[in-house]
């Protein structure tokens, strides 16, 4: 299995072969992530997000899980005007801030260091915090608790993108579920069901990357 993807290896190899290779600073970040086992978005997933940002003319984006800032930088590069991003890990947050400065995006990306379970409700208290896109890419077991504040900050017509929801295929079949992962899988199944049945959302689950759920707020 390539990179925790849910797809056939030959499909992933083919899709990646047609995505133009990154150059310059982005390539450097990808190499750094690979060398240091930093989990950044897979090429096909970040490409989807770039297309969605352009298609939806997403101006304000909220990201849960910055890591070293790779996806936030790609989202600004795709045309987002402003990205707010939340990261729990101090070392990752320090790298991310440095990378935003190096990319020349420090004035357009605001990093909130801390637990999204604390930061999201605080952000949601300010009724002016409305986002065109919210990208959830952090601890999978916590997606359910991230949801309510994210939903309240998503504008009508806005897009919620939840990454890794198929979790190496485990969400889709008990045959693949590792014993130590069964709580995460149970929570992801509840999360997908909630997204799909939510009366104010229209959700599509895509077998792309590690599984991506796209939810539009009515
Ligand atoms: C998959 S990485 C994010 C990758 C990034 N979006 C990218 O594509 O470049 C997930 C990140 O979420 C962070 N994280 C996990 N749980 C979190 C939480 N409760 N609050 C904030 N960040 C969290 C982890 O420290 C990790 O850096």
TrEMBL record:
Subunit structure: Homodimer.
Reaction catalysed by this enzyme: 5-hydroxyuridine(34) in tRNA + S-adenosyl-L-methionine = 5-methoxyuridine(34) in tRNA + S-adenosyl-L-homocysteine + H(+)
Alphabetized Gene3D superfamilies for the sequence: Vaccinia Virus protein VP39
PROSITE patterns (alphabetical): SAM_OMT_I
InterPro entries (alphabetical): Cation-dep_OMT (IPR050362), SAM-dependent_MTases_sf (IPR029063), SAM_O-MeTrfase (IPR002935), TrmR_methyltr (IPR043675)
UniProt keywords, alphabetically: Magnesium, Metal-binding, Methyltransferase, S-adenosyl-L-methionine, Transferase, tRNA processing
Name the record gives this protein: tRNA 5-hydroxyuridine methyltransferase
Single GO MF annotation: magnesium ion binding
EC number per UniProt: 2.1.1.-
Positions annotated to bind S-adenosyl-L-methionine: 71, 87, 115-116, 137
BP-aspect Gene Ontology terms: tRNA methylation
Family, as annotated: Belongs to the class I-like SAM-binding methyltransferase superfamily. Cation-dependent O-methyltransferase family.
Pfam families cross-referenced by the UniProt entry: Methyltransf_3 (PF01596)
Organism listed in the record: Monoglobus pectinilyticus
Domain of life: Bacteria
Protein purpose: Catalyzes the methylation of 5-hydroxyuridine (ho5U) to form 5-methoxyuridine (mo5U) at position 34 in tRNAs.
Residues holding Mg(2+): 137, 163-164
